[in-house]
Recover the amino acids of this structure.
């Protein structure tokens, strides 16, 4: 029995430059042919755990970005909130449904983080699945709805719009990109890999665009035009979140595919 080795291509956030960028991880053929349409409850838990790890791993990077025009505490707050969320997810699993995973993550962040970041990012997870019927699987259209709900809730709560130099500058383009994917015909509309690849790309572009904006919220607001040229830390966190989810579903696909490509001799 021999195993055929596959090396797909993924993207992930790198913190070696001022703006997070998509970097190629060698893996051979892919993304067009990679299709993953659903996640189980357990897989969804693992995906959100990967988000926690990604934010925690970028603690210093986020702190550095925020220290340029903000309070310098974004990385500390986000990392601390995600650390608590990770513990809650690990102790709470197995969950009864997908909704509970997002609720647990959001509530933990709200209760453990101080300042605006705790409210905003906690609300992103909590509001996303709020009011939706219990789900035992997560597919592309459902994930798009979750983040559309999250975006609407955040904009209603804080009033931020694209161009205000906030996390909305990355979240809204990502949501628009996901909405576009779910309107496609065939399996593409449900493909989580395509969905999150598009969302990650849009979020990264949103982060880059924040350099062109004067801030309208937070400490950076007082800098007015002097905040131009610097990226927003909250938008950067959003890009890291989408990058982590994209990486997770891509690696899951290739892990599952490798089990199907065992050749008997």
């Amino acid at each position: 029995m021999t195993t055929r080795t596959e090396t797909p291509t993924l993207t992930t956030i790198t913190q070696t430059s001022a703006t997070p960028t998509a970097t190629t991880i060698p893996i051979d053929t892919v993304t067009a042919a990679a299709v993953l349409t659903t996640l189980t409850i357990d897989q969804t838990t693992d995906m959100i755990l990967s988000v926690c790890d990604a934010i925690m791993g970028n603690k210093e990077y986020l702190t550095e970005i925020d220290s340029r025009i903000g309070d310098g505490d974004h990385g500390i707050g986000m990392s601390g909130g995600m650390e608590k969320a990770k513990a809650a997810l690990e102790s709470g699993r197995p969950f009864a449904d997908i909704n509970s995973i997002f609720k647990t993550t959001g509530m933990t962040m709200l209760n453990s983080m101080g300042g605006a970041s705790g409210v905003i990012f906690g609300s992103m997870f909590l509001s996303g699945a709020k009011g939706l019927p219990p789900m035992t699987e997560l597919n592309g259209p459902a994930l798009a709805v979750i983040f559309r709900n999250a975006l609407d809730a955040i904009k209603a709560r804080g009033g931020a719009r694209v161009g205000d130099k906030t996390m909305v500058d990355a979240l809204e383009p990502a949501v628009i990109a996901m909405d576009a994917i779910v309107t496609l015909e065939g399996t593409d509309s449900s493909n989580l890999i395509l969905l999150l690849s598009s969302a990650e790309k849009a979020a990264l572009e949103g982060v880059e665009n924040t350099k062109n904006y004067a801030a309208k919220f937070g400490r950076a607001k007082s800098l007015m035009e002097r905040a131009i040229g610097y990226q927003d830390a909250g938008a950067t966190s959003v890009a890291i979140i989408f990058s982590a989810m994209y990486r997770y579903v891509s690696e899951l696909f290739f892990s599952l595919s490798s089990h199907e490509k065992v050749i008997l001799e």
User: Anything to note?
Assistant: The longest strand covers residues 10-14. The beta strands are 2-3, 10-14, 21-25, 38-40, 137-139, 262-263. Residues 99 and 130 are 7 Å apart (CA to CA).
